[in-house]
């Protein structure tokens, strides 16, 4: 049985292998992509309190936020969605609930 992974890191050290980590063991591409969506949304929501202007929020995320890369996940369009639509439920940001290693 094949498994899927999500690669995470922070934009302050973008693509520095010492600053990236992977979350392995997702049972499907869809679950890995949902983990990435929730992970990014959680980052946006943490920054939203300090940066209420959409462009300032986008800039802050690209400088200080943590990213996720997964099969079937498109960061740019999802970031646009998260900035325009604040999270409405705890489940929107609860990426830990999907972690296969918990």
Q: So how many helices?
A: 3
The helix content, as a percent range, equals 40-55%
Helix and strand sequence: EEHHEH
Strand content is 15-25%
Biggest sheet layout? 3 strands, antiparallel
Q: Between the first and last Cα atoms, what is the distance in angstroms?
A: 19 Å
Number of strands: 3
Gross geometry: globular
- Segments where pLDDT lies below 50 for 5+ residues? none
Cα-based radius of gyration, to the nearest Å: 13 Å
| Coarse structural class | alpha+beta
Strand order of the largest sheet: 2-1-3
* Mean pLDDT over the residues: 95
Description:
The protein has 102 residues and is of the alpha+beta class. The protein contains three helices and three strands; from the N terminus they run E-E-H-H-E-H. The protein has helices spanning 29-48, 54-64, 75-84, and strands at residues 4-10, 21-26, 66-69. A three-stranded antiparallel sheet has the order 2-1-3.
